[in-house]
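TA notes, week 10

Several of you asked for a full example with nothing omitted. So below is the full record: structure tokens for the whole chain, then the designed sequence directly under it. When grading your own attempts, check the secondary structure regions first.
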């Protein structure tokens, strides 16, 4: 089921701002460095299948395929407008990324389809119960021994950061990130070896890179 009791949150909040997503993201996150780290930490290899969950305008999915042409890249998002932008980018780049409309908690793929699943700056849009559903669904579509790479906002450090966090805790969907609950949620969903492997500073908050594995050997 695609149903959720929570309101859908677009990339920049109001849907009318979606067209500004790419320039805003570039400005606030040092996107080239961030996406490069994502590709590096995904540890892609020719012959693998990768799924990008919450792909937005497709920037990372396209970069992943360009860096590793031998990888079969799929990408999903729940927003038709960002998917139209992503497909246009792919067409102009001559890339074969397969974009589909789907929600993170209801993925249209059989069990064990992917060697890698990635997700960047999407989980903080989800309420806690949807985070849990999405984590279990991602685990389902990973092959045994496959890995999830999740990148999302975490609490900044220092006194100014703590004050900023106090304000942001009022936003329900961000609270889990700011309280550093994502690793425990991934472990609770069934992932093994969950760990923060890197951190990327931005003009807003740092982005943590988390990696976890589906138990077993394919």
């Amino acid at each position: 089921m695609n149903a959720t009791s929570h309101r859908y949150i677009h990339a920049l909040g109001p849907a009318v701002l979606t067209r500004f997503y790419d320039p805003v993201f570039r400005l606030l996150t040092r996107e080239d460095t961030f996406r490069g780290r994502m590709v590096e930490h995904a540890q892609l290899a020719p012959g693998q299948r990768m799924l990008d969950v919450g792909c937005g305008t497709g920037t990372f999915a396209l970069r992943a395929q360009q860096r590793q042409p031998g990888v079969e890249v799929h990408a999903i998002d729940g927003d038709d407008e960002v998917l139209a932008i992503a497909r246009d980018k792919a067409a102009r780049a001559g890339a074969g990324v397969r974009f589909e409309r789907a929600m993170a908690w209801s993925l249209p793929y059989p069990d064990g389809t992917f060697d890698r699943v990635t997700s960047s700056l999407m989980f903080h849009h989800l309420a806690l119960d949807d985070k849990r559903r999405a984590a279990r669904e991602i685990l389902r579509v990973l092959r045994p021994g496959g890995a999830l790479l999740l990148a999302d906002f975490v609490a900044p450090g220092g006194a100014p950061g703590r004050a900023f966090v106090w304000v942001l805790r009022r936003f329900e969907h961000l609270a889990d990130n700011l309280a550093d609950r994502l690793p425990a949620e991934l472990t609770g969903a069934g992932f093994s070896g969950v760990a923060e492997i890197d951190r990327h500073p931005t003009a807003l908050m740092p982005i943590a890179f988390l990696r976890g594995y589906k138990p077993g050997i394919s």
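The mean pLDDT is 86. Use that as a sanity check on your answer.
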